[in-house]
């Protein structure tokens, strides 16, 4: 598998892969919204390719910081591997690559959150070097209108 930063030419393939990540999402972003989010400064989308086809992806956001000596921190999100290629080490290779990029950028930590409760998924992230007992994550969502 070849890993590289994704470009705008890869956006449609990435959105196709994201359909596997969140199949319950009934509303997809419009082209303008997708392009703006994709190109946000400090955010890199990494992709794993086989035979020219995007088969795995994650994104890494590098966030400036005023603590920890001014060292940034990273956030990895939207980790997904094509369903037909899961369990082959592709997701792990992609996460390891993103972590290497974060360490090279001087990050003092990288955070990854998941809404998955499957013990196998949690164990996968632990094998990738994440400690689920180090921090506690809280999520706030906008209130729903009645």
TrEMBL record:
Sequence ranges assigned to domain N-acetyltransferase in this UniProt record: 1-146
SUPFAM superfamilies attached to this UniProt entry: Acyl-CoA N-acyltransferases (Nat) (SSF55729)
Gene3D superfamilies registered for this protein in UniProt: 3.40.630.30
Top-rank lineage group of the source organism: Bacteria
EC number(s) from the headed UniProt entry: 2.3.1.-
GO molecular function (one): acyltransferase activity
Keyword Acyltransferase included in the entry's annotation: yes
Top EC class, one word: transferase
UniProtKB keywords: Acyltransferase, Transferase
CDD domains registered for this protein in UniProt: NAT_SF (cd04301)
Pfam families, A to Z: Acetyltransf_1 (PF00583)
Listed name of the protein: GNAT family N-acetyltransferase
